[in-house]
Design brief:
By secondary structure, the chain is mostly helical. It has 14 helices and four strands.
Length: 489
C-alpha cells in the first residue's frame, strides 16, 4: 500500500512537471516577440557616443563588465570598504518628517555599548530621541498613495525585507579601535555627517545590500520631486516643456530631457549626474526585487524583475524618457571614473588601515590594481570644459552647482526607509566626493592629485569608502543592464 501511494505521488509529480514545462514553453514562444520589441525600445539609446562625452556606450560596457566590475565587486568586500559610518536618524532639514515606512523592519535597532568598539564608546549611538523616532515612523497613512507597482501585501513581507542589520563582528570591533579620522579642510559638495555627532553608527554594507524594501507612497515620491523640481537647474526661457501650453498638473514632473538643450554644459552635467544616480538606484531595486513566497513552502526571494525593468525604461511606459535615463547612467559612471583616475596618486599612498596587516596589504594591492585599470581607460571625462573662466557669472554658477548638490545630499536625510536612506546618503557622499576631487587643483584629463597635495587636500575615510562604493553601485548597474538585456532575449 505504501509503495502504491508513493508511486501515485510520483506519477502526479511528473505529470505536473510536464504540464508546467509545456505551459512555460508556450508562454515563452508567445511572449518572445513582445520581449524582443521591448528590448529594442529599452536599449535603443545604449549605443554610440555618450552625451557631452567622446566615449561610446559600447566601450563602457566592455570595459566595465570585463575589467572593472569583477575587481570592484571583490574590493568592496574588504573590511576597509564594507563599514560605513553614518547617522541614520539625522532629522530632515527641509520638512517635518515622521520617517514613515511601509515595513516595520525598516527600523534600525541602535547598537548597544557592548557591541561598539572601545574607541567609539561614549561618542556615538546615543539613544536620545530614538524612542520618539521609532514611535512615529511607521504610520499607516505613510503609504496611502502608492506610485508604482513595487507593492507587496503585508502578509507577504519577508521577515528581513528592508531590515538594516547593524551587527558588527568581534574582529571588526577590534579593528575600529585604531582607525584614525582626519578632518577635511576643503569645500565640500555634499552634506557629510559629523564623525563625532550623536547617533553616528557603523553599518556593515555587506549585511545591508541595496535592494527592494517596499518603500513607496508620498514619502518616496516627495524625495525625487524635491530633487528634480526644486534642486535642478531650470532651462532658459523659450525652451522645452515648461513653455508648452498643454502643461498641466498631471505633468508636474517636467520632462527635463526635452529641454536640456536650453541648459549650459555645467547645468546639463548636473542634471545627467542626478538622473544617472536615480537610474542606478532604480536598476538595483529592479535587479534585486523581492518576490514573496506562498507562506508555506517559501518565505520569498530576491531576483531580477524583468517586467518591472521594462515598465520603468520602455519609452512606451516611461513617457519616452526611459532609454535616456539609462544613457545618463553611463554619463555618471564616466564622471566618477574620472574622479578615481585623478585621485589615483593620492590613494596609492593610503594604507587602508584596519589593523589586520595581511588584509590591509591585500586591500592596498587590490586598490592599486583597480586604479591602474581605471587609468588605462583612454576616453576619460574632461572636467576642464566646465567653469572655464573666473568671471563673476561663472563663479556664481559654480557656487549654485555646489549648493544645489549640497541640498540634494541633505534631502537624503528625509528618506523614510532606513536602508534606502543609508544607500542614498552613501551614494550622494560618493558623488559629492567625486565632484570635490574634479574641481580641486588642476583640471583636465591629465590632471592628478598626488600624495604631496595632502597638506591642502584631504579625504576622510568616510569619503573614500563612499567614493568606492558609489562607483561600485554604478558599475553593478551597468552590469545588471547587460543581464537584463540577456534575460529579455
Amino acid at each position: 500500500m505504501i509503495m502504491s501511494f508513493l508511486m501515485e505521488k510520483m506519477i502526479r509529480y511528473l505529470f505536473s512537471v510536464l504540464l508546467i514545462t509545456t505551459l512555460c514553453r508556450f508562454h515563452t514562444v508567445e511572449g518572445a516577440e513582445n520581449y524582443d520589441s521591448a528590448r529594442d525600445r529599452c536599449f535603443c539609446k545604449l549605443k554610440g557616443e555618450i552625451d557631452d562625452c567622446s566615449c561610446k556606450v559600447e566601450n563602457v560596457d566592455s570595459f566595465n563588465n570585463l575589467k572593472i566590475y569583477p575587481v570592484l565587486r571583490s574590493l568592496t568586500q574588504k573590511d576597509y570598504f564594507r563599514y560605513f559610518k553614518v547617522n541614520i536618524n539625522k532629522p530632515c532639514a527641509f520638512w517635518e518628517n515622521t520617517f514613515e515606512c511601509s515595513l516595520r523592519d525598516c527600523h534600525v535597532e541602535p547598537c548597544t555599548k557592548e557591541q561598539l568598539p572601545e574607541g567609539l564608546k561614549g561618542k556615538t549611538n546615543s539613544n536620545e530621541g530614538v524612542e520618539d523616532h521609532a514611535k512615529n515612523k511607521y504610520k499607516k497613512e505613510a503609504q496611502d498613495q502608492p506610485v508604482s507597482d513595487c507593492t507587496l501585501d503585508k502578509d507577504d513581507y519577508d521577515d528581513k525585507l528592508g531590515f538594516l542589520d547593524q551587527t558588527i563582528s568581534q574582529p571588526a570591533e577590534e579593528a575600529f579601535k585604531s582607525w584614525k579620522q582626519h578632518d577635511d579642510q576643503q569645500e565640500t559638495f555634499c552634506e557629510i555627517d559629523d564623525e563625532n555627532a550623536a547617533n553616528m553608527q557603523y553599518v556593515d554594507l555587506l549585511l545591508n545590500p541595496e535592494r527592494f524594501t517596499g518603500y513607496k507612497g508620498q514619502s518616496a515620491q516627495r524625495i525625487w520631486s524635491s530633487i528634480y523640481n526644486e534642486n535642478c537647474f531650470k532651462p532658459l526661457p523659450g525652451y522645452g516643456f515648461l513653455n508648452k501650453p498643454q502643461s498641466t498638473e498631471a505633468n508636474k514632473m517636467e520632462k527635463w530631457a526635452d529641454y536640456l538643450e536650453g541648459l549650459c554644459l555645467e547645468k546639463r552635467v548636473f542634471f545627467r549626474m542626478i538622473s544617472g544616480l536615480h537610474t542606478s538606484i532604480s536598476v538595483h531595486l529592479t535587479y534585486n526585487f523581492f518576490f514573496p513566497g506562498n507562506g508555506f513552502l517559501s518565505s520569498g526571494h530576491f531576483a531580477p524583475n524583468v517586467d518591472l525593468f521594462q515598465k520603468r525604461f520602455d519609452p512606451a511606459t516611461s513617457d519616452d524618457e526611459g532609454p535616456q535615463r539609462l544613457r545618463n547612467l553611463y554619463f555618471t559612471y564616466l564622471v566618477e571614473l574620472r574622479a578615481l583616475a585623478k585621485i589615483a596618486p593620492y590613494l596609492e599612498e593610503e594604507n587602508f588601515y584596519t589593523g589586520n596587516e595581511v588584509e590591509d596589504a591585500e586591500t592596498k594591492e587590490a586598490v592599486i590594481n583597480l586604479l591602474n585599470i581605471i587609468k588605462s581607460f583612454p576616453e576619460q571625462f574632461d572636467e576642464s570644459k566646465l567653469f572655464t573662466d573666473d568671471t563673476v557669472e561663472t563663479l556664481k554658477l559654480k557656487e549654485d552647482f555646489r549648493q544645489k548638490f549640497h541640498n540634494i545630499s541633505k534631502i537624503m536625510d528625509c528618506v523614510g526607509c532606513d536602508k534606502c536612506r543609508l544607500w542614498g546618503k552613501l551614494q550622494t557622499v560618493g558623488m559629492g566626493t567625486a565632484l570635490k576631487i574634479l574641481f580641486s587643483g588642476d583640471v583636465g584629463p591629465d590632471a592628478t592629485l598626488s600624495a604631496s597635495s595632502k597638506t591642502k587636500f584631504q579625504l576622510r575615510r568616510t569619503e573614500i569608502v563612499a567614493l568606492f562604493n558609489a562607483f561600485a553601485r554604478l558599475s553593478s548597474s551597468i552590469h545588471a543592464i547587460e543581464e537584463f538585456r540577456k534575460m529579455m532575449r
